[in-house]
Amino acid sequence: MKYKRILLKLSGEALSGKIGHGICSITLANLSSEIKLLIDMGVEVAMVLGGGNIHRGVAGATKGMDRTTSDHMGMLATVINSIALQDSLERNGVKTRVLSALEMQRIAEPYIRRRAIRHLEKGRVVIFAGGTGNPYFTTDTAAALRANEIDADVIMKATKVDGIYDKDPKKFDDAKKYDTINYLEVLNGELGVMDSTAISLCKDNEIDIIVFNVFESSNIQKVVIGESIGTLVTKNNGG
């Protein structure tokens, strides 16, 4: 294995599958099976989920709403997604813990760094819910923060496309895919991989990001064993 401890970042929309909103049971089952294979390989798996599949579904209600209030709703949506994935994983025989930045001890453990690392060392999947616990920060930033806190080997950014392009490949046939790119090129090019705060945090602490298509079978395992999948964001070329 190239990576022993990973942080897998998955958008909320990815959990909705072909439905386009809510949580797709088939997508959950497929994702759980892929993660179980990683655990069986001895990989330590931490995860951060977005909440867009739920939060954006009530976009009409949040129009004109205070940003802090809306962000708190988004954080709660990530908790719902995390609990759903926890249930799916445990039905597959994978021991899982949800650690929330928002205190809700009846349904999730509070986030404590040492506790999270201990769970990983015991072979449990750790799902970080509630974002950073603060408004104005995305789940991408939460992923970068947690990855650095647990000393993850890499952030695996799971998307619906097979890497980073210089422009939208769905709109432009001549879009160029990058195999490797550095942090500054991502920031200066405003490529929209992750928000600038997350990219800067990874750059400052030299943690690599791999952007790949999670919906292609076995791609997660291929990344872990070091196959050239997707796009690697790293410090190369002085980045």
Record keyword descriptors for this entry:
single chain; 239 residues; alpha/beta; Carbamate kinase; 9-stranded mixed sheet; two-stranded antiparallel sheet; 10 helices; 11 strands; 20% strand
Structure described in brief:
41% of the residues lie in helices and 20% in strands.
Account of the 3D structure:
- There is one protein chain.
- With 239 residues, the chain is an alpha/beta fold.
- The chain has two domains: 16-147, Carbamate kinase, CATH 3.40.1160; 153-239, Acetylglutamate kinase-like (Carbamate kinase), CATH 3.40.1160.10.
- It is 41% helix and 20% strand.
- The mean pLDDT is 91.
Largest sheet: 9 strands, mixed
The low-confidence runs, each spanning 5 or more residues with pLDDT under 50, are: none
Strand numbers in spatial order across the main sheet: 4-3-5-2-1-6-10-11-9
Give the helices and strands as they follow along the chain: EHHEHHHEEHEHEEEEHHEHE
Fraction in beta strands: 15-25%
Rounded to the nearest angstrom, the radius of gyration is 17 Å
Percent helix, as a range, is 40-55%
Decide which structural class fits the backbone: alpha/beta
Annotated CATH architecture of the largest domain: 3-Layer(aba) Sandwich
In total, how many beta strands?
Answer: 11
Q: How many structural units, i.e. domains?
A: 2
Overall form: globular
Q: Supply the CATH class of the largest domain.
A: Alpha Beta
Q: Looking at CATH, which topology of the largest domain would you report?
A: Carbamate kinase
Total DSSP helices: 10
Question: Superfamily at the CATH H level of the largest domain?
Answer: Acetylglutamate kinase-like
Mean pLDDT figure: 91
In whole angstroms, how far apart are the ends? 25 Å
